[in-house]
Design goal:
The protein has about 400 residues and is α/β, with parallel strands linked by helices. Helix content is about 45%, strand content about 15%. A 7-stranded mixed beta sheet has the order 3-9-8-7-6-4-5, with helices on both faces. Helix 2 packs antiparallel against helix 12, helix 4 packs parallel to helix 12 and helix 5 runs parallel beside helix 6. The radius of gyration is 21 Å and the shape is globular. Its EC number is 2.3.1.47. This is 8-amino-7-oxononanoate synthase.
Length: about 400
């Protein structure tokens, strides 16, 4: 018996689900070079335009000159440096929580937090559309795992009634493929009523949302009692890399003791923490970035609706255009690329079957003129592709 990998790959191609890595040959930004082709990109998560910011780059260089380029060891051995500690304190201040803990990636932060908090005999309840890292963490925890209907506090309440042991409710703050925001006040109300804890992964909320860029929790004005476990990633609006968990003194100390993805990995480069400290300063102080981004979102939604595109309910930088058929979504993405516009087609299993889409993401580095170019391209390609077979 052997693994028939060739057959699996052929089947994925036949279903229009085969993935390929575009080769980026330029820094992140609206204007990129991908596979040798200059493109206007609307598909990265650098929401505030900080990934290639000169001050952030200089902070990285200065950090590397002072601290070197490697973490050297795990945080618990000799890898926890002064820049790491300073960044944790700054992230705690941003989130209004006593402490924060750095992780190397968002996947590791989610896996570490969930598996450290619940296990056999406990319960973890998750939104059906949560990010894969959250779903994997719930399954790997060993706790009783169940999913409630998307953004539905009534569905959550019914599952809470049957929960046993320590119960952790887990949701994205902003859903990465739909762009909608979780109804955190309602989820927090149901969770607290049952003595459970709410964990929010706000990877796509930090930066664009909240008066100070503090994300969906700040947007709703919720407290640590409402959201005891708050996760954020640094590779999106912060423009760098890594992730963090913020919460109480007891939570962070528990993660240091029990979160295996934290304990058993080398720390991120100290220079990266220096760069993130600068990006965090810009995220909090340069309010024009969020204001400009919101103006672009309004411009895009108004223009897309005039074209007749099917948008999803989102006021965030994630603006999916619902297509349905995976092959059709890929074709539309290819047509846009031929016009010099890069917009990713998102297909199953990333999204449910029959809900393939173009995932448009807007950033503070885009201009109104660039968004208008996108709208003109979408209008032309949408008309040329014609109606879906079977639709008038």
């Amino acid at each position: 018996m052997s693994f028939d990998l060739a057959a699996r790959l052929a089947a994925r191609r036949a279903e229009n689900l085969y993935r390929q890595r575009p080769l980026l040959q330029s820094p992140q930004g609206p204007q990129v070079v991908v596979d040798g082709q200059p493109l206007l990109a609307f598909c990265n998560n650098d929401y505030l335009g900080l990934a290639n910011h000169p001050q952030v780059i200089e902070a990285w260089r200065a950090g590397a000159a002072k601290w070197g380029v490697g973490g050297g060891a795990s945080h618990l051995v000799i890898g926890h440096s002064t820049p790491h500690h300073a960044l944790e304190e700054a992230l705690a201040d941003l989130t209004g929580r006593p402490r924060a803990l750095l992780f190397t990636t968002g996947y590791m932060a989610n896996l570490g937090a969930v598996t450290a908090l619940v296990g056999q005999g406990d319960t973890v309840l998750e939104d059906r559309l949560n990010h894969a890292s959250l779903l994997d963490a719930g399954l790997l925890s060993g706790a009783r795992f169940n999913r409630y209907l998307h953004n539905d506090s009534t569905s959550l309440a019914k599952r809470l009634e049957k929960a046993t042991g320590n119960t952790l409710v887990v949701t994205d703050g902003v859903f990465s493929m739909d762009g909608d925001i979780a109804d955190l006040p309602a989820l927090a109300r149901e969770t607290r009523a049952k003595g459970a804890w709410l964990m929010v992964d706000d990877a796509h909320g930090f930066g664009p949302l909240g008066a100070q860029g503090g994300g969906s929790v700040e947007h709703f004005g919720l407290s640590q009692e409402d959201v005891p476990v708050l996760v954020g990633t640094l590779g999106k609006a912060f423009g760098t890399a890594g992730a963090f968990v913020a919460g109480s003194e007891e939570l962070i100390e528990s993660l240091i003791q029990f979160a295996r993805p934290y304990i058993y990995t080398t720390s991120q480069p100290p220079a990266l923490a220096c760069a993130t400290l600068k990006s965090l300063e810009l995220l909090r102080s340069e309010h024009w970035r969020r204001e400009h981004l919101q103006a672009l979102i309004r411009q895009f939604r108004q223009g897309a609706e005039q074209i007749g595109l099917e948008l999803m309910d989102s006021f965030t930088p994630i603006q999916p255009i619902m297509i349905g058929d995976a092959g059709r979504a890929v074709r539309l993405s290819q047509m846009l690329r031929e016009r010099g516009l890069m917009v990713s087609a998102i297909r199953p299993p990333t999204v449910p079957a029959g809900s393939a889409r173009l995932r448009v993401t807007l950033t503070a580095s885009h201009s109104e003129a660039q968004v208008q170019l996108l709208l003109e391209g979408l209008a032309d390609c949408h008309e040329r592709l014609g109606p879906e077979p079977g639709h008038a």
